[in-house]
Write a structure and sequence with these properties.
By secondary structure, the protein is mainly alpha-helical. The protein contains four helices and no strands.
Length: 130
């Protein structure tokens, strides 16, 4: 299962982002919310954004993998997912709007492509099944 590799790498990325939130919460002595600290607000959104987009993308990837898609296509999707989420997170942390948009575009186009591929495999399987 190729998607397991990318799910594991994404999980480690989310842990890394979560540790950054925890570090800033301790530093600012904030247990809930952000208490108006811009760096904590950003860290919370970076973590939140990852947890919003990574799961649906991984679900689409595993469905595509189960549909018999070529192994290389799953790897391309996984690499794109990691790249898009990394670019977005680092750009958001650095207040780099241009790279942030690039990370978002990679993620959105990937979700749309995976959705289209899953629909294609579903239709192809329905009409061309043995």
């Amino acid at each position: 299962m190729i998607t397991a590799l990318y799910a594991s790498l994404c999980a480690l990325w989310i842990v890394r982002l979560s540790l950054q939130v925890i570090k800033l919460r301790r530093q600012h002595r904030v247990s809930i919310g952000d208490d108006g600290h811009p760096d904590l607000q950003t860290a919370i959104r970076v973590q939140g954004n990852a947890t919003e987009y990574i799961p649906i993308t991984l679900i689409l990837m595993i469905i595509l993998e189960w549909s018999g898609s070529p192994w290389w296509l799953i790897h391309i999707a996984g690499i794109a997912l990691l790249a898009g989420r990394f670019i977005h997170a680092t750009a958001l942390q650095r207040n780099d709007g241009e790279r942030r948009v690039l990370g978002m575009k990679i993620t959105f186009y990937l979700i749309m492509a995976l959705s289209a591929l899953n629909i294609f495999y579903l239709i192809a399987g329905y009409f061309f099944a043995d």
